[in-house]
Amino acid sequence: MSEALWPYLVVLLFGALPNEVFRSAAVFLARGLSEDGELFRWIRVVAITLLAAVVSKIVASPPAALATVPVWVPVAAMATGVLVHRLRPSLFGAILAGEVVFVILAWAI
Predict the structure, then answer these.
(1) Which of 21, 22, 55, 74 sits in a 20 to 30 Å window from 108, CA-based?
(2) Residues 77/70, Cβ–Cβ less than 8 Å
(3) How far is CA 70 from the centre of its chain?
(4) Cα 74 from chain centroid?
(5) Predicted confidence (pLDDT) per residue in 62-72, tens digit
(6) Which of 5-19, 21-35, 48-62, 84-98 has the highest mean pLDDT?
(7) What are phi and psi of 72, to 5 degrees?
(8) Which residues of 37-62 are buried (b: 16+ CB within 10 A; e: fewer)?
């Protein structure tokens, strides 16, 4: 095997495959659960909270490349994401809207 392909094999073996095993197990175990039940509502709230915490940390102390962008750009992107999520409770739509606003504003500067 080529020297250049070893990192990809490591990522596949130790990253992707274990993830697929747990995802398959979760699908099997979640067959009888209701999407509108208390458990799924709690999981959804925890997921959104964790995402908000990560985004807030990135805005508060941006890593290398983001440190060059003015602070109002990620704040505006985050506000857009929150607004979109309030109007239509879709996590994917909120993330997408925030990303689009961030890229447009960062590119325009």
Answers:
(1) 55
(2) no
(3) 22
(4) 15
(5) 888 888 888 89
(6) 84-98
(7) -70, -20
(8) eeeeeeeeeeeeeeeeeebeeeeeee
